[in-house]
Each structure stands twice: as structure tokens, then as C-alpha cells.
Amino acid sequence: MTLTIDVARSAPRDADAVGIPVASEGTVSRSLGLTRARLAELGFEGKPGQTLVIPTASGATVIAIGVGARKDRTPAAMRNAAAALARAAAKCSTLATSLADVDGEASRATAQAVAEGLVLASYRFTNHKSDKPKGGLSRVVLLAGSASEATVRAGAQRGSLIAGAVTTARDLANTPPAYLTARHLAERAEEIAAANGLEIEVFGKDELERMGCGGMLGVNQGSVEPPRLVKLVYRPRNPSGHVALVGKGVMYDSGGISLKPSDGMHVMMKMDMSGAAAVLAAMSTLKALRCKTQVTGYLCCTDNLPSGSAFKLGDVLTFRNGKTAEIHNTDAEGRLVLADGLSLAVEDKPDAIVDIATLTGAVLSALGTRIAGVLGNDQKWVERVRAAGERVDELMWQLPLHREYRKLLDSNVADMKNVGGPYGGAITAALFLNEFVADVPWAHLDIAGTMNSDSEDGWLSRGATAFGTRSLIELVTSFTRS
């Protein structure tokens, strides 16, 4: 169900729930119908994201939503408060709330964050359920004073647009692999490009052979489904710079000959194309957001499956830029498809490159499920990428691109191996990718830990998170040549 967000000065008559912000200090709105002392007796203290549903004899249900102290009301906190409110009102149809205009101090950033939280927390993937949920929250009206209505509306529109892109990426990553092959994703990309003013080229197996994209072709050898490399370009007038985005699009990763164990992680390998989904979804917003940066996106899409024709340990692949790699683990396939995408991106001569990929279990072990790893060859660029993530509450932690570990990739028969041993896997994977970015400022986002959420938590819903989508949008829309 699509959640519609409107802005008005007063609550509509058909609202069946009203969300009232309550700070952790100061007076409590009379419309709540309870004193602070009574709220405390009920265990409600106004902490950020805390909710209390207050049934009424007639009229709309009242929901108290905690917003904490004034100093705590960052966009991240307000996004999570809005998410909590959406869940508390999940059984209602129309919700009205002044959450975007707390204490009459509306800001565009707050309204954007509130809209994002409402939409993202309401997300559910039900495409393959026979008994689909009925009813539920379908409309939210953000209440604003007359002086701030335009501000709230502008922020809400931007937030709804960005959250819509995130839901697109989540839908793609949640879709079972039989329903979303490389061909299907390329077709979806063509639809999105046509609707959003993007140039698009789609390269199939024959074109990839002529282009010398041995990484893409090698990983695809075991699949009956052909690969697709999709190039998208957003080209504004008088661009302020040029950024390239490269997304790993392994539609399903069995591990190939290096077969993964049959466990819960294997089931989630339909999400191994989350990087490509994030790039596609981010690019879908750029025209509407009037982004001034030229952005080129590459989606590197294929399955990685075992069969009689699958690539083998000991094989040597030759990539687009002419470098070669000896295969020591076919489950280290993401770096192989990214190598071709990064090589092509360098040929476009961008100011900077970001790749995003569900690349290593090592980053999950190191940083857990809420923090992505970021590495790169240019400190200023890495810091800009990390700062963009922090602004949208997609946390990243920089790992060192320790050049001393490059020797772990040395091969007797090729330029390098595709794995560097049992330790420091996130770093050696990034060092492998570094071989394909020349001297262009580059950052690598490893989102293997953050691709999935097992619980409802803040703006996260169960399943694919689409982590990185909002960071990429924030990064390219704020980009200027340094």
C-alpha cells in the first residue's frame, strides 16, 4: 500500500488518529487529554520515539509520540519518532500529526525526516502473500502553522520522493530470484530511466565479450540466465561535477563451485544485488530533485551458480582494463563484476567514484548489522561519503586501505588472486577493487552487514533495508568539485 502524505493547517474530519508530540520537559498539549503526571503513571516520559495510544470514547484515537528534549530533535531522531508513530497508527487509515512542526518551529529538514520515517516504517513486502493485509495506514496529514506550511510541504515532498526510492530498492532486493533475473532488472531500469529523464544503455553477453568484461562473463558462466550490464546517465545542464556510481548486482549468489552452506544467509543471497538496486533507486530521484551533478551509474548484473560450465578455482579472468586475476574462491565473485564496472566508470573520467556492494562477510563480523564499511584511495572523498551517510542516519565506519596487505593478493600465474586469505577480508577485497580505479578518487561501500534487518527498528522494516540509497542521493545532490 502506498502512503500518501499531505500538508494542512488543521486535521481533516476523516482522521481516525491524531499524533501529538510530547517533549520530555515543559507543558503537555491540552489536546492530549492527560497531564504529565498521568502520563508518567502510564510509563510515558516523552523520550524520543516513545508512543502511547490513548483510546477515546468518540472521535479520533490520540497517540502521544515522544520527541525528547529540544537538543535531541535532530533529523535522525525525528525520522525515528515518525517511524514509531507510523507503527502505533498502523491499524488506522488517516493520521494527522504536528510532528513536523514541533513547538511551531518547522524546518524543511525536519519535515523531510518525518516524511521519510512515516513511509519507511510503513513499508511491507507482500507481493507473494496469498492473504494480503487489508486496511492500514494509507494517508498522513502533516499539520503546520500558516507561516510554515510551505516549508513543511517542501520538506515532506522531498522526503516522500526519497523514501519512495528506498521502497523501490527494497522491493527489488526482497523479490525472489526467480522473479528478478538480470534481464528483469535491466527491463525495470529501462522503465525507470524513461520515467525519470535518464539515458540508458544495456549491454548483453555478446556486447560484454566485445568489451572485454571478463569478470562479468566469468561469474555468469554457470548460469542459464544471461548477464546484463546497465549504464545510466543523468545529465543536467551545466553540471557542477560528475560522479560515477557502480553497484554490485549479483541477482542470486550460490557461491558457484565454492558453494555456500544451506543456511539462513544463503536464503538472503537474493539480496546480493542490493548495491545495484541502491544505485538505480538513487538515480531515479535526480531529475525531480534538480540535482546539479552529472551522475553515471553502472549496474553489474548476473547470477553466480554452479554447473558444468561454471568458472572454476584456478581459472584466470581478464578484465576490461586488461588486468588478470586467478580465481581461488568463486564465492568472491562480487569484486569480479565490480572490476569491469569500475574500469568502465574510469573511462568516463568522472571527478569521483563510489561503488556499493554486499561484498564480504568480514565487514559483518567487524561492524555488525547497523554500520557499513567504507574504504577508499582518497581521504577527502571518503570523508565526504561518510559525512553524507551520517546526515541521513546511514552509519559508516572507515576501514584502512592498508597497502601492506596487497601482497596477500599476489598470484604466481596472474596479476593477482581474487582473495587474500582468511583475515582482513573487507580490506583485501577493497585492495582488489583499487586495482581498477586508476587515480580517480574512489570510495567503496561494503553493505553486506546492513543489507537486511531482522526486526522493526527505527526507519528499518524487516527484510531488505536498501541501505545506501539515501546516502548516495545526499552525496550526489550536495556534490561540488573541491
TrEMBL record:
<dbReference type="GO" id="GO:0030145">
    <property type="term" value="F:manganese ion binding"/>
</dbReference>
<dbReference type="InterPro" id="IPR011356">
    <property type="entry name" value="Leucine_aapep/pepB"/>
</dbReference>
<keyword id="KW-0378">Hydrolase</keyword>
<keyword id="KW-0031">Aminopeptidase</keyword>
<dbReference type="InterPro" id="IPR000819">
    <property type="entry name" value="Peptidase_M17_C"/>
</dbReference>
<feature type="domain" description="Cytosol aminopeptidase">
    <location>
        <begin position="329"/>
        <end position="336"/>
    </location>
</feature>
<comment type="similarity">
    <text>Belongs to the peptidase M17 family.</text>
</comment>
<dbReference type="GO" id="GO:0006508">
    <property type="term" value="P:proteolysis"/>
</dbReference>
<dbReference type="Pfam" id="PF02789">
    <property type="entry name" value="Peptidase_M17_N"/>
</dbReference>
<dbReference type="Pfam" id="PF00883">
    <property type="entry name" value="Peptidase_M17"/>
</dbReference>
<keyword id="KW-0645">Protease</keyword>
<dbReference type="GO" id="GO:0070006">
    <property type="term" value="F:metalloaminopeptidase activity"/>
</dbReference>
<dbReference type="InterPro" id="IPR008283">
    <property type="entry name" value="Peptidase_M17_N"/>
</dbReference>
<dbReference type="InterPro" id="IPR023042">
    <property type="entry name" value="Peptidase_M17_leu_NH2_pept"/>
</dbReference>
<dbReference type="InterPro" id="IPR043472">
    <property type="entry name" value="Macro_dom-like"/>
</dbReference>
<dbReference type="GO" id="GO:0005737">
    <property type="term" value="C:cytoplasm"/>
</dbReference>
<protein>
    <recommendedName>
        <fullName>leucyl aminopeptidase</fullName>
        <ecNumber>3.4.11.1</ecNumber>
    </recommendedName>
</protein>
